[in-house]
Structure formats: C-alpha cells, structure tokens
Amino acid sequence: MSEYKDPFIIAGKELKSRLIVGTGKYRTFEEMEKALEISGADLVTVSVRRVDLNAKNKESLLHYIDLKKYQLLPNTAGCYTAE
C-alpha cells in the first residue's frame, strides 16, 4: 500500500486508508464482512434503502459492520422521498 504525505481527513476524521468500500453486491452478509476486513478500508458506503433501523430483532446489514472500526457513508442513490 502506498504511503501518502497528506492525511486523509473526511468530516474531521482522519482515516488510515483512502479506499472506500461499498456494502452491496455480496451474496451474504458474512461475505461482505470478510471483504471489508480484507480490504483494509476505514470508510464503508451503506445504501439507506437496505437498512431498517427499526428492525432490532431481524438480521441487518449493520449487524455485520463493526462501527468501532468503520465510518459509515450513507448512500441515498435510488431514494425518491425522505421515507
């Protein structure tokens, strides 16, 4: 991996990696979780259409993303209303 002289800072947070990884297109949440780990990325995009914040007992994409390790970048693509 290349070393950069300038820090990579987004929204006041310094990130170690300049790689931004998406959470879509994986066959399973477990596959996504492994891919995120292997990538070394600090910033992960999440489609707001795929996340139900009210579904506490159902399996969710967010159950597989370590929020202590990754910063989330919401992706609103495909959303037509605030709902």
Protein model, in words:
With 83 residues, the chain is α/β, with parallel strands linked by helices. The protein has one domain. The chain contains one helix and five strands; from the N terminus they run E-E-E-H-E-E. The strands form two sheets. Strands 3-4-5 form a three-stranded parallel β-sheet, with no helix packed on it. The protein has a two-stranded antiparallel sheet with strand order 1-2. Strand 1 and strand 2 (13-15) form a beta hairpin. The mean pLDDT is 88.
Secondary structure layout plus pairing:
Layout (H helix, E strand, L loop, with lengths): L7 E3 L2 E3 L4 E3 L6 H11 L3 E5 L23 E5 L8
Parallel strand pairs: 3-4, 4-5
Antiparallel strand pairs: 1-2
For the structure shown, list the relevant keywords.
83 residues; alpha/beta; globular
Strand order of the largest sheet: 3-4-5
What is the arithmetic mean of pLDDT?
A: 88
The CA-CA distance between the termini, in Å, is: 40 Å
Coarse morphology: globular
Poorly predicted runs are none
- Please provide the ordered H/E string of secondary-structure elements: EEEHEE
Number of DSSP helical runs = 1
Q: Main beta sheet, described?
A: 3 strands, parallel
| Strand runs, count | 5
Count of individual domains: 1
Radius of gyration (CA) equals 14 Å
Helix content: 10-25%
What is the quaternary state of this protein?
single chain
Structural class: alpha/beta
The proportion of residues in beta strands is 15-25%
